[in-house]
Fold this sequence. Notes:
mainly alpha
Amino acid sequence: QTVLFLISHAITRVLPTIRSRCRLLRFDRLADSDVQAVLSHRNSGPDDAETHALAVALAQGRVGEAQALVNDPDLLEVFATFCHLTSSLPAGTSASVQTDRLTWAGAAARLDAPRRERLLDDWFSRRVRAADEPAPLPSPPSLPNLDAQQRLATLWSDHTARVAIRQAINIDLAEAMMALFAGLEDVYSQR
């Protein structure tokens, strides 16, 4: 007799014909203290407590994600910059704002795409749920109503599709990142 384990973080993406033949076992996410303990035990990355704490908070119970974030300080820095840029939305389209956004877009486009997009997905998810960013990252202003949250969810979907298309045909992702800021500016200016 053989037992296979099928592990999925998105059960709805598993085909119904496969799901119907499986026994579902749910595991809660690991507590941040448990993820921190694993990172400490593995002596992961730099010995910077702030970097570890931020990586653990952003990983949301995923040890592998926390490990990868600790080992990729550039990704953490670019995400922190994104949080600072979005904390002042709407910021307008002044030259200095656009320069900061373009600099960020260029840096973000060069990073590991799946991890960058997972961080952005988590950011969008926190925005739609009106949750704060993990300390010490700043959060953007709250969205006042369901209409604004729906516009943000639509922007999230559009951004994901835009990035997937650009990656598939190898077009510069910086343009997609700038379109993301234009969309965020639009959502936050119509509050």
